[in-house]
Design brief:
The complex is a heterodimer of chains A (236) and B (328). Chain A is α/β, with parallel strands linked by helices and 236 residues long. Helices cover 39% and strands 26% of the residues of chain A. In chain A, 44% of the residues are buried. Chain B has a two-stranded antiparallel ribbon with strand order 1-2. Chain B has helices at 4-9, 11-29, 33-59, 66-82, 87-109, 114-133, 162-184, 186-196, 198-203, 208-234, 239-242, 245-258, 265-283, 295-310, 314-327; strands at residues 144-145, 236-237. Classes of the chains: A alpha/beta (236), B mainly alpha (328).
């Protein structure tokens, strides 16, 4: 198991956001968190990457407890978070964004090799290398956000809403890339997604969140057969 | 970085070089005591406002308490000078002590965000001023006068004030050069990334606290150096002349007027604001007992108002737009 979360409770002030969340992410798999707005997907990812602190519960990454570590220590373990809404540094160029991605020491030493490899995965970024990140299209920005995360040499990638605000065709391209990461780069991926159809299509295992609880879980191929899931999340 | 074609394309570097050239030539062209003094003050503010800009512009930490660093630099130089230390070491020692102070206050201050950080810096600056005002070892409200030494380059003690200008230019060149290399290097990117989104910098594994601290220490260091230069030139300091809130305001105002998002903005700001400030102060009022005391502050206000309406990005922004219009 790459990531094991056990009965996690997270609060914003006095408001409880996550209740008794337990989940597992397998090595080399794509695991999806689906659920409506405010169900706690983003909160869960932020808690894993150390930006938020849980009130109780444990998060084990490769058998090591990571609750209580600082975000930058968690990054050094190889868990990289691609935040929601892309969150690039808009006034820096694409190149500079990628440079910032390779912040940690190990990744910094291999910056040149990594850059070359990642630009072959995302050729569009190569054309835009010296453009300000804020001038890219939505899809390009999402790819840059993922590429920036890859520069840090992740072993577990947390991707928050990669489809947010993108046209259907662009969403397909972004997910093509995400699948490539799993297959050729051997990166384990946990993604939060409102677009349930897309999430079921690419992922191996799916957790359904509602108001901070895991209400259903299962292999994507099995869960998609479920009547209720089809009705509520896929509209069929 | 330093090839001719690159310099031509790099507006910041161009302005740095032109400013230094101007500071070198102008004292020879127009050797007037009052003008030399204005130029000297301009060089001081160039160092301290550029240092302020490392925090305020690049990292997004707005400080209204830089007079604290400035004053510590000035006091360090004055006391070490009187105890027989060479001012050539004392200037950098002033920076070092100021940066040590920055390091210490960064722990409580960096727990605060946005407006609260800015307010707290005012408190630190004012508290330190009052503390020095009552601290007997540093002369309390009487201040410190620099001991008389023989007139010499070694003691930075001259009859002709023009020499002070060249000492200031020398220190300016070293300080600006170091800050330029830092801001254009890795650390500069890290600081800007914190300004743009602190949460995102966490997701790439950077510890924002550490780099905000580095920004404060660097900023404190060079502001302290500027303070030390003040002390060596005017040879008398007291808490109200080197630690007053007005100095903090002046330092950040120059940076903002010049343009905070570019490295050379504060240089441009100091070059234009300081002479205006000095001449209005002397000619229309401000000097104690003058007829229109405070009028120069009014003029300041008007300049600030005009700039915020027509050039919110500062003079640097105006210049960039002008150049783009002409050459493209």
């Amino acid at each position: 198991m790459s990531l094991v979360i056990n009965s996690l409770d997270v609060y914003y002030g006095k408001v409880q956001i996550l209740r008794e969340i337990s989940l597992k992410v397998d090595h080399g798999s794509i695991t999806a968190l689906i659920g409506p707005n405010g169900s706690g997907k983003t909160t869960l990812l932020k808690t894993i990457s150390g930006i938020l602190r849980p009130m109780k519960g444990s998060i084990k990454y490769e058998d090591k407890e990571i609750v209580g570590l600082q975000p930058h220590e968690i990054v050094e373990l190889g868990i990289i978070h691609v935040p929601e809404g892309r969150r690039l540094f808009p006034y820096l160029t694409v190149y500079e964004n990628l440079l910032l991605g390779s912040y940690n020491k190990k990744a910094r030493e291999r910056f040149k090799d990594n850059l070359e490899r990642i630009l072959t995965i995302f050729p569009i970024l190569k054309e835009r290398l010296h453009q300000k990140a804020g001038t890219l299209s939505g899809g390009e920005q999402q790819m840059l956000a993922i590429a920036r995360a890859l520069m840090a040499e992740p072993r577990l990638l947390l991707i928050d809403e990669p489809s947010l605000g993108l046209a259907p065709k662009i969403i397909d391209t972004v997910y093509e890339h995400i699948k490539t990461l799993k297959e050729s780069e051997k990166i384990t991926i946990l993604l939060a997604e409102q677009n349930a159809a897309k999430a079921f299509e690419v992922s191996d295992y799916v957790y359904v969140l509602e108001t901070g609880r895991v209400v259903r879980e299962g292999k994507a191929v099995e869960l998609i057969q479920d009547e209720e899931i089809r009705k509520v999340y896929l509209g069929i | 970085m330093f090839k001719i074609e690159n310099i031509k394309r790099d507006i910041d570097l161009m302005i740095i070089l032109l400013t230094i050239l101007l500071l070198l030539i102008m004292p020879l062209v127009y050797n007037n005591y009052f003008f030399l003094n204005a130029l000297f003050l301009a060089s001081l503010y160039m160092i301290s406002s550029t240092a302020w800009n490392i925090m305020g512009g690049f990292t997004g930490l707005i400080s209204f308490g830089h007079a604290a660093f400035f004053g510590i630099g000035a006091y360090t130089l004055a006391l070490s000078y009187n105890n027989g230390l060479s001012p050539w070491i004392g200037i950098w020692l002033g920076g070092a002590i100021a940066s040590l102070f920055a390091l210490i206050i960064s722990f409580p201050l960096l727990r605060l965000r946005g407006h609260w950080f800015a307010l707290a810096t005012i408190a630190v600056g004012e508290a330190l001023k009052l503390f020095f005002n009552n601290w007997d070892y540093v002369g309390a409200a009487r201040g410190v006068e620099l001991a008389r030494k023989e007139y010499s380059f070694a003691w930075i003690y001259f009859i002709e004030s023009i020499y002070y200008n060249y000492v200031a230019v020398l220190i300016l060149v070293i300080s600006i050069f170091i800050m330029f290399l830092i801001i254009r290097g890795r650390i500069g990117y890290y600081l800007q990334s914190i300004r743009e989104s602190e949460e995102t910098t966490m997701t790439i594994g950077l510890n924002p606290f550490k780099y905000k601290m580095i920004a404060m220490v660097l900023s404190g260091f060079f502001t302290g150096v500027a303070g030390a230069l003040y002390a060596i030139r005017y040879r008398y300091i007291d808490p109200f002349s080197v630690m007053d809130l007005f100095i903090s305001v002046q330092i950040c105002l120059i940076a903002i007027v010049g343009g905070v998002y570019s490295f050379a903005g504060p240089l441009l700001g100091a070059l234009i604001v300081t002479p205006i400030a000095e001449y209005t102060r002397a000619l229309i009022g401000g000097a104690y007992g003058a007829r229109f005391f405070g009028l120069h502050l009014l003029i300041y206000g008007v300049i600030l108002l005009i700039l915020s309406l027509y050039a919110p990005g500062g003079l640097m922004d105006v210049l960039k737009r002008f150049l783009r219009g002409r050459y493209r």
